[in-house]
Write a structure and sequence with these properties.
The chain has 582 residues and is an alpha/beta fold. The chain contains 18 helices and 26 strands. The structure holds 1,6-di-O-phosphono-alpha-D-glucopyranose (G16).
Length: 582
């Protein structure tokens, strides 16, 4: 039987503008008639024809609620739009970094290679019938579509009149590995279901020295804990940490992927990764007994990571700086040196200091992993990271949660290679404190005000921009609030000119820069699905080694006070406290 192609009439649906990383909305929005279809067709229409007709596309994600239905719909639309093959991870599961690896590395049973992917995830947002779903398109370099493409997709969603679908194509069993072939009007169409982990595991083994990490993990002095928060990282954790590296199964927490992430919020931070935080001896409800030496967590699609030591939190901004400082001697992939390093604008300047010391190329880009891709493709950047718990390298074009854990384990293995039999190992905390002694410390915190009224959030931002035109007025407010905070010497909205393609991205965050190097940054999140989330980033540099050991919330309290006063946070939003502090 030859499947048919139907042309379905449709109308534009409001609000399909991709955010920082794809389109994220409540499931109830996505399941409206034509909603997903319009976005997928608008994406096909935004690509050049050869990236669709005859192409191989990956369609998978973090396994959240509605993924299985979405995979069947996208497969039927792919067939109708002339795609030659669809690749699906078993059970529809592929982490975001694994998708990137699959696009870049995988060769299909018939020698084919993928030219793009629909990734089905809303990342760290909760899942389930009343929660979030998401979709984004990644390009043939394995990275998220650049703004030129996402803008085109959005424009297409505003004018769409029709989409194409092969309704009579049977649903494919995505639980079993294998190839299903179908006859279409233009020839054969295949769906290949493959093991979700093997390509990714192979890539990790080519980057890191698994033998040295195995030795570390097998040391009786070393204890380890990994929390996948019921996200897709669970599909990789057992294979890598237990089967390849010899960790105990009991060191894995919440490693069974679930459609609703067990009812939790799969966001690896000190607020939402409660069980891990308690086990690591942090927070109010610490578990009984001695915490593990090392702990880490991932988000829903496993591109984010949180790194913890025993009773110790590593800020993501410090984490990328420490990985960059230690990469060459600890990680075989980097043994020839780093091409350069990059961070997003709101991320602390800890990486800048490392780049300066090591004489490395350095780039500051807007928030959004897509901005790192061009630098990596041009051979300008090896390691990059963001304050939002994202860390990665040019091995793929997405941030990579498990990669970050393996990078930290490699650094620990390297620092401890002579003393695995000793009484005390060099710990995560030792490494961070030593780093601060060498490079100084960037005290850093982020306040998130989630689900604020969107109008109020916009007004607050507009007010902060307006205030920037009068620094004397700003400094009056600062002085009236605290005498121990230095003065604001510059204030602007961050604008980025991509050094590779010259494209310009404006309005990428409101900055207040102080004389002593401290910074306040205000941004609206681009990843929420309801209302607005205001992010306030606060940073202060301390070079004096005798002053790098303070509690960070204490050290930053004066700047926090200034930030709240400057922004009239309570006045605009009615909030007396942030939803999350990291
Ligand atoms: C995405 C992007 C990141 C960004 C993060 C937070 O991550 O890929 O580059 O830092 O969103 O963005 P925002 O501050 O706009 O919410 P993920 O893990 O959500 O895909």
């Amino acid at each position: 039987m030859v499947f048919k192609v139907s042309r379905v009439e449709t109308k534009p649906i409001d609000g399909q503008k991709p955010g920082t990383s794809g389109l994220r909305k409540k499931v109830k929005v996505f399941i409206q008639p034509h909603y997903l279809h319009n976005f997928v067709q608008s994406t096909f229409n935004a690509l050049t024809p050869e990236k669709v007709r005859g192409a191989t596309l990956v369609v998978s994600g973090d396994g959240r609620y509605y993924s299985k239905d979405a995979i069947q719909i996208i497969t039927k639309m792919s067939a109708a739009n002339g795609v030659r093959r669809v690749w699906v991870g078993q059970n529809g599961l592929l982490s975001t970094p694994a998708v990137s690896a699959v696009i870049r590395e995988r060769v299909g049973v018939d020698g084919s290679r993928a030219s793009g992917a629909f990734i089905l995830t809303a990342s760290h947002n909760p899942g389930g019938p009343n929660e979030d779903f998401g979709i984004k398109y990644n390009m043939e370099n394995g990275g998220p579509a650049p703004e030129g493409i996402t803008d085109k997709i959005y424009e297409n969603t505003k004018t769409i009149k029709e989409y194409f679908i092969s309704e009579d194509l049977p649903d494919v069993d995505i639980s079993a590995v294998g190839v299903s072939s179908f006859a279409g009007p233009e020839g054969q169409f295949d769906v290949e279901v493959f093991d979700s982990a093997s390509d990714y595991v192979k890539l990790m083994k080519s980057i890191f020295d698994f033998e040295s990490i195995r030795k570390l993990i097998s040391s009786p002095k070393f204890t380890f804990c990994y929390d996948a928060l019921h996200g897709v990282a669970g599909a990789y954790a057992k294979r890598i940490f237990v089967e390849e590296l010899g960790a105990q199964e009991s060191s894995l927490l919440n490693c069974t992927p679930k459609e609703d992430f067990g009812g939790g919020h799969p966001d690896p931070n000190l607020t939402y990764a409660k069980e891990l935080v308690a086990r690591m001896g942090l927070g109010k409800s610490s578990s009984q007994g001695e915490p593990p030496e090392f702990g880490a967590a991932a988000d829903g699609d496993a591109d984010r990571n949180m790194i913890l030591g025993k009773r110790f939190f590593v800020t993501p901004s410090d984490s990328v700086a420490i990985i960059a400082a230690n990469a060459v001697e600890s990680i075989p992939y980097f043994s020839d040196g780093l091409k350069g390093v990059a961070r997003s604008m709101p991320t602390s300047a800890a990486l800048d200091v490392v780049a300066k010391h090591l004489n490395l190329k350095f780039f500051e880009v807007p928030t959004g992993w897509k901005f790192f891709g061009n630098l990596m493709d041009a051979g300008l950047c090896s390691v990059c990271g963001e304050e939002s718990f994202g860390t990665g390298s040019d091995h793929i074009r997405e941030k990579d949660g498990i990669w970050a854990v393996l990078a930290w384990l490699s650094i620990l293995a390297h620092k401890n290679k002579e003393n695995l039999g000793e009484e005390k190992l060099v710990s995560v905390e030792d490494i961070v404190r030593q780093h601060w002694t060498t490079y100084g410390r960037h005290y850093y915190t982020r306040y998130d005000y989630e689900n604020v009224d969107a109008g109020a959030a916009k007004e607050l931002m507009a007010y902060l921009v307006k205030l920037q035109s009068s620094l004397p007025e700003v400094n009056e407010i600062v002085k009236g609030t605290r005498s121990d905070v230095s003065k604001v010497v510059n204030a602007d909205e961050f604008e980025y000119k991509d050094p590779v393609d010259g494209s310009i991205s404006k309005h990428q965050g409101i900055r207040y820069l102080f004389e002593d190097g401290s910074r306040l940054v205000f941004r609206l999140s681009g990843t929420g699905s309801e209302g607005a989330t205001i992010r306030l980033y606060i940073e202060q540099y301390e070079k004096d080694p005798s002053k790098t050991g303070r509690d960070s919330q204490d050290a930053l309290a004066p700047l926090v006070e200034v930030a709240l006063k400057l922004s009239k946070m309570q006045e605009f939003t009615g909030r007396t406290a942030p939803t999350v502090i990291t």
